[in-house]
Structures
1.
Amino acid sequence: MQILLLNGPNLNMLGTREPAVYGHDTLDEIVKRVERRAFELGAEITACQSNHEGVLVDFIQQNQARAAGIIINPGAFGHYSYAIRDAVSGSTLPAVEVHISNVHAREAFRETMVLSAVCRGVITGLGWRGYIYALESLVASIEDKAEEKDKK
Ligand code: DQA
């Protein structure tokens, strides 16, 4: 089971970027933890970080046919990118949106969430572990669906 893991702009700076908000872990460390957990769950991660909207859209389009789900921290794109929303929605894959910080406890502009409505769920404010919870819930729901199909 392939899971796409997308990280948007400025998340490449994790570790040094506003550690009081985002913690001290680098994106590389976080992705490795997600990959390890995925392995335990019988899944595999295909990861992409980009500061460019179109690169994230291309990545979804190029990988959607062989993927079972999407975990995405869109960074600031989550607040205004209709292109990423349309790409996630168009893929028809189940998606979970992750934000490391609690976007609802911050500036008012972060209250606008244009991607969330096309995701199964949103995890915000639980730090890097949000990615792990997203993975666990995504894998469980994909397995549930497969079981339901088998029963029919
Ligand atoms: C973020 C929250 C966004 O509002 C912000 O623009 C980010 C990081 C988070 O993980 O908490 O870049 O997505």
2.
Amino acid sequence: MKLSISLLTVIIASGLFIASCANKNQLSDKQSVGAVSKQDWAIVIHGGAGAMSTENLSPELDREYRAALTDALNAGKKILAEGGTALDAAEQTVRLMEDNPLFNAGKGAVFTHEGRNELDAAIMDGSNLAAGAVAGVTDIRNPITAARTVMTNSPHVMLTGAGASQFAKEQGLEIVPPSYFYTDRRFNELQEVLKRDKNGTVGCCALDRQGNLAAATSTGGMTNKRYNRIGDAPIIGAGTYANNNTCAVSATGHGEFFIRWTVAHDISALMEYKGLSLKEASELVVNDKLVKAGGSGGVICVDRLGNVSMPFNSKGMFRGFATADGKEGVFIFRDEAGMR
Ligand code: ASP
């Protein structure tokens, strides 16, 4: 019964989307930007999915989040418009969000059950399937840069904990005391939700002028996590995936489901093996498979033509996109339509 109600909601919401997209420059929650011809470049970002609504997000925070998403998007846009690589755009955009305490990544990361911050991040190059990830790190200021360094300067894909820190130090990355990640807001949140886990994360997917795709995701994981739990973000194929033949995907949500349903790779596989479009594949995984499984969250993705899709099955998802033809927008809630 609960399921059929959610399916009904999805169907009704899809109908509303079609109706609201009469204006080409408008997008709604089912955002999918269909490229008529190939885009020179495209970028899509998220700042976490969750239970945010107009009732529980103050106007001030709403403004702050939209400004932060816009800043991050602008940084990535600039890199891509000037001919920079998708990898640079993805890394730099995520770095900006890591440094912003509003997001659950880098500074502002959520707390573990024990009151620590343990960070996960991954990056993937769609041109050659190179990938790098760090998990459970406590003192690397920008985990996404550490992930990229693992990709480029080590023979491995994923490093964890103390080993990852040692590698980052040897590579000359910025190391900070674990207290750097402390924010009152997140600590108080832990106290409030010790029994009720909470979501939030950042990610970026980009297509560059050379036709290459890249995906990057960074997170503090889930509030109140225990036992060195690692989520989907740093796991290639679960929370992060990029392949020039199909798409780039970055996920946010209840990581355990995204790992078990290999969400990011499933979207790519549906395109590769079944010939689905980016929109069809991402909607199927997020609003059908994950809904049936009970896994809340969403994804942002871009394909090799510059089509962008950002489906989610939670109440809201901080998100934004921009494409070379001048379309762009940032959004938070489910039923938003139109430009900023
Ligand atoms: N997916 C992340 C995790 O499970 C959390 C999130 O996106 O909010 O670690």
